[in-house]
# Entry
Amino acid sequence: MEKLTGQSEQSTKGRALPPNDPTYIYRKADKQLLQFLQADNPPNLACYILASPQMGKSSLMVNTASRLPKNRYICIVIELKTSVSTLSANLFYLNLLKIISKRIAKNSNKLLQELNTFWQDNLDIAPSQKFTIFLQKVLTIIGDKKIIIFIDEIQQLLDWKLQESFKNLLNTLALSSEAHQQQLTFVLLGTANPAYLLPEASKDISRVSLIQPRNLPENCPQLLAGLKKVSQHPANLWQEILFWTGGQPFLTMSLWDLVTKRLKVQNNSELKTQIEQLVNSEFLQSGSQAELQYHRQSIENLFIRNDTDKIDSKIYALNLYEKILLNVPGWEVSDRTLGKDNLLLSGLVVKYDKIIKVANPIYQQIFNKKWIEQTKQLVIQRRCDHMASPKIFDRDVFLLIDQSGSMVRKDQSTGGKIRWKFLPEPLEGHVYRILNETSLDGHKICEEIVTTCFSPNRVNKKTAYITNPSQIETFFIENQPATSTYLVPTLDHLLSQWFATRNQRGGFFIIYTDGQIDDRDEFVKLIESTCRKLNNQDELKIVIIGIGSDIDPKFYIQLDQNTRAFKDAKGLECNIIVFDLLNEMEDIIDLLDRQLEDPEAGMPTWAKEQYPELFA
# Structure
């Protein structure tokens, strides 16, 4: 199995059964997937295999790949690395093409060199678009064969914020008239809500399907055969195993394996007692087998890891689970029941028509009321850890973008793109976070962002009112790099507007620049005069984000430290400058929040490491 970004840290646990394993159980999903992949008129494009942890998805993938005729299909199995917290679209699509190229070309070095050259020569083209362009070349090499790309741990696209890009890629491929692109099919496996990953339903993507593997069936002859050595009543023994596991694949196979190795049931009347004792000692006691600990953690992680913007829905899911747990016979739900989808995704419960109940007695005892309370506290703490200060909300936000001629330069930190072409993508992310950050009581930072450029030594009155991140790309197309780097005229103009109309609202002025401004002395004077108009330093923050290799951080770091001792209207210290580098900062909300709580402690770590003399 290829690793898209390197070896996964959990590669030794919960792995797939090898092809032709005698204990592999065929389910309805096996038939559905094989039929999907072998369809010809038209060939299918993508199949999502989504289910709760350890439902046998990876085993289904490996088994299916082994059953496809090698003279007709090239199967490429990829696992997304779960230890990588961020991955750019550029690296994702480039690495995907590298893996495909290595797999299909007898002498892949030449093809890889062509790929690297193509990628560098087209820095102004979106990564997903470059993927589809180069893919045409790749597919001409394989003759009339078809490529099946299996991608495991597909939920990583959510963590990397690449799900929308990938959905758009599928839409593009679905609409393509290129014959070669009919030779490619994706199989995408993972644990995620289908609503977050599947493209919007339309006639254009009818070749995209969803398969959700279910529990093991009651009829499993090969497993029943293994129990004949343990008891004279293997069918009864099998039913007792299913009673405890509910047919959940991992639990069922684990308990079956323990029974075949540990038990010898002489009397049928002892069967229930012996199974219960085995479950208690191996599944329910502390220090149980490592594989079970991994299984438990993988379910718990669905609630406590990642998706900080979906924390409320996880709390709803835990609250719903508590009601179901305490009302064991079943809990009636509707499509509008809060938390239902996240709870079903975890696998802790199963749904029969409108009734939801705990999936099995093992889960009922492991994931008990005490576990619910502990997990709630972890989730709530995670929300508190990621919740912005109340001071950040209800503000006017202005973006000022450096339009100077140097924005056409290329840097290693921008992936070889010119700065003007590189900036829109991260800026879209910043705009999305600013427009969507919401407090516990429903307050937002702002509803729109005033956006403009600065360059010549005059006021730029051409502004855009951004209410959706998608407007950023248009803004950059309509504005192009110009000449010098004069910031003060435009900044002073916008500050005057804000002071005149603020109505008790705070302000954020976020400046993106790639070097030293030409009116540096005037900028310092403007900051000093602005501070004297403020009642306190929390009212206004001027955030400067550096881009590219020409930036000299020292000047901005010292302003961030308020080494010039600016004062507010009351004569108190007034620190309103915040500085960071685009390729060093982790999150725009954290950056905006930084000096609202503790300006001194909010200095970036990289600055302290690179310029220790400024912090002596």
Remarks:
- The chain has four domains: 2-211, 221-288, 292-386, 390-615.
- Residues 221-288 form one domain.
- The longest strand covers residues 395-402.
- The two ends are 50 Å apart (CA to CA).
